[in-house]
Amino acid sequence: MDDLARFCCQKPECSLYGQRNAGNLSVCGRIGKHKQYRQLYCNACRARFSERKGTPLYRCHLPEPTAVSVLDHLAEGNGIRQTGRLLGIHRNTVLRLAHAAGRHAHDAHEELVAFSPSHP
Predict the structure, then answer these.
(1) What is the pTM for the complete model shown?
(2) What is the strand order of the sheet 25-31 is part of?
């Protein structure tokens, strides 16, 4: 089983929200069509959530290699329609995944910038 140190509680009301390696998470089950994802449990606030929550792939029904391929194509500069044609998926699916990845990147940037030292 993978180490849970890279995960954190996803419930904003939790006292350990966003704190990685706090020792409050455990695996309480498996979810997904093929039970491929772990369901995590926070001992502090009793919340349950998917290990994918808080990532661009949360609630994405594409197989993981296809979803990653979509993001790779977009990063290489391919357009929404072109990516959809190349991978055989609908352009709206590509667009939805692109928006999710963009929001995630923006939030990650804002979090990192908030903790960066200011220039003198």
Answers:
(1) 0.73
(2) 25-31, 37-42, 48-50
